[in-house]
């Protein structure tokens, strides 16, 4: 097991403790082997919790709450909280929040982004990610991206309602956007915001098409195609309404910038 900046200190310390105890003859070789032979996931019958995901990728497992059975969600939430001391879920309903709140009254729920979470106190947020929206109707997806990035340790600047129909609003916040390590552009309708931002910054732009718009927007397909076909350089595109995916990738980029 290799410990690096993206791995929790307690995971590294647990490994070192085992090795040091073996070195001091405080445990047997067989006991040390049993520690390292632990399965990298927890079998729950209906689910396999990936307890080593943070060791491999630097990010712990997150719960996609939508369509999960109540008993499954509650059990998974409990196991992840016991494992990590915090837990993060996306696409949660009000009913699911009330279900979890009965057992964990400290849980926080955001009705706009449908994020449900328990976070450790005193978390240090590093670097800078700019999350921008074309309109206020895109904020629910943008908040999923922003709160995901914050949960994973990134500082986020929110710059909302700066779409191309009033582009002077974007220029008013351009200094903040250009100083970020990564920019997330969230837009529905024709999705032009990503192209505009791509031509104004020297950092990666993650474009998030949303399902906001009238009939010909085709539930976000129009914005998706615009973003994929952008003539601006440095733009990557995630799936329609995938704020979580954008926040995750933005954090990866931000971490590299902070490390450098």
Walkthrough of the structure:
The chain starts with 8 loop residues before the first helix and ends with a helix. The strands form three sheets. It has a five-stranded parallel beta sheet with strand order 8-7-9-10-11. The chain has 260 residues and is α/β, with parallel strands linked by helices. The protein is 40% helix and 17% strand. The longest helix is centred in the C-terminal third of the chain and has 17 residues, at 243-259.
Quick description:
It is built from eleven helices and eleven strands. With 260 residues, it is of the alpha/beta class. The strands form three sheets. Strands 8-7-9-10-11 form a five-stranded parallel beta sheet. A four-stranded mixed beta sheet has the order 3-4-6-5, sandwiched between helices.
Task: Show the helix and strand layout.
Blueprint: H1 9-23, H2 29-36, E1 42-43, E2 48-49, H3 53-57, E3 63-64, H4 70-84, E4 87-90, H5 94-101, E5 108-110, E6 115-118, E7 126-133, H6 139-151, E8 154-159, H7 168-172, H8 174-178, E9 182-187, H9 193-198, E10 205-209, H10 221-228, E11 235-237, H11 243-259
Parallel strand pairs: 3-4, 7-8, 7-9, 9-10, 10-11
Antiparallel strand pairs: 1-2, 4-6, 5-6
Helix pairs in contact: 6-11
């Amino acid at each position: 097991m290799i410990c690096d900046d993206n791995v929790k200190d307690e995971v590294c310390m647990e490994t070192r403790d085992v090795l040091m105890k073996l070195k001091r003859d405080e445990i047997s070789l067989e006991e040390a082997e049993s520690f390292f032979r632990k399965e990298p996931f927890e079998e729950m019958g209906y689910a396999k919790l990936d307890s080593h995901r943070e060791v491999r990728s630097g990010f712990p497992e997150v719960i996609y709450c939508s369509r999960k059975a109540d008993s499954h969600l509650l059990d998974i939430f409990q196991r992840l909280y016991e494992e990590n001391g915090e837990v993060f879920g996306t696409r949660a309903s009000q009913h699911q929040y009330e279900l979890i709140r009965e057992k964990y009254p400290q849980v926080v729920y955001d009705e706009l982004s449908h994020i449900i979470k328990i976070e450790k106190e005193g978390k240090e947020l590093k670097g800078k990610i700019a999350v921008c929206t074309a309109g206020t109707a895109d904020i629910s997806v943008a908040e999923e991206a922003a709160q995901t990035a914050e949960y994973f340790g990134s500082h986020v600047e929110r710059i909302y309602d700066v779409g191309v129909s009033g582009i002077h609003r974007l220029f008013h916040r351009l200094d903040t956007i250009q100083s970020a390590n990564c920019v997330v552009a969230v837009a529905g309708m024709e999705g032009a915001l990503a192209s505009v931002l791509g031509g104004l910054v020297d950092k990666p732009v993650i474009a998030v098409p949303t399902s906001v718009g009238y009939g010909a927007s085709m539930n976000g397909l129009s914005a998706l195609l615009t973003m994929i076909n952008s003539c601006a350089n440095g733009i990557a595109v995630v799936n329609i309404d995938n704020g979580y995916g954008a926040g995750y990738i933005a954090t990866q980029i931000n971490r590299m910038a902070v490390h450098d």
